[in-house]
Amino acid sequence: MGISALKILKASILFPHAVALIIIPILVDYNRLKAPTGKLYLEQAYLKAGLNKARLYLIENPYCFSGIRHDYEESWFSVIGVPFDGTTSFRPGSRFAPSSIRLFSTEAETISLDDCIDLEKVPVSDLGDVAVTFNVEEVLNRVETVCGELLGDSKIPVLLGGEHTITLGAVRALKPDLLICFDAHFDYRDEYPQGVKISHATVMRRISESLCRVVHVGVRATCREEVEYAHNRRFLTSKQVLEDFSKASEALKSIVEEASRLYVSVDLDVLDPAYAPGVGNPEACGLSTSMLLKLLDCSITDRLVGMDLVELNPLLDFGGSSTAAAVRILFQAIVKTAREKGLV
User: Fold this and answer.
1) Where are the domains of the chain?
2) What's the whole-number mean pLDDT along residues 139-152?
3) For residue 266, what are the β-bridge partners?
């Protein structure tokens, strides 16, 4: 056994999930990714769709979201991975989440008995991943370009993070007037770390300053600077949700009803670590997965223009429970949106 094989063997014992993300793409049958003509699926999708600058920024991912391919032209939703965690301050690894979510999604059932709508009947195209760099502004510009072209083609972007900073690029393009942010944290710092204006800890401040209204749900951990900034702004804490779910859900419905263009962002750390341990910054006393799904049901309307799920860290998700939760959240959010828009 060579030295490289020994290293892989040791790594597989210490970090089995991470090694799987590296090794499995090597073993994937790439013929499954090809259209009948023999051309790669994404190449065909771009040519058919007429994507302009966006095609320069998108690269293939060996997995397909849900395992079901739909043509871009026929799709209502377009999945885009953004494997970026360049400003992560505690436990990096969310860059691996788009691949992990796709992998788990191929094994997840497409029908939930909560609504009995089959995801297979909802056309969702997977355009691969945004090619990221180490420059956060360049990454955001690329996300903005891709989302802008999808908007022009009347598609609903579904972003797979990556860290929470990517939401800024999507909001710049989609221009919602309300962002519902499910998150344990406000992300309202002005600079983090010192001197850095755009990071995962400042993203919602940048959005709320000039782009749209932000309402947090499930927030529970903060600092003095953020408390001062959040003064007189609407938010629902996890304690409020846990103590009186009915009242919290009704409050959320009334907030969402005011929006003409809605964006929903789910930071997976809104869930309690018992349900989602595989996140970069876990906080105790969070929501359960079923509770979050019910709140999503209250917050998604026919005016939704885009959504994302961020901050999943597969390197810390040894049992896969966090990724499984992420997949179910995305499936239900897509189906709920399709139903609200009268598409199913």
Assistant:
1) 1-28, 34-340
2) 97
3) 182, 309
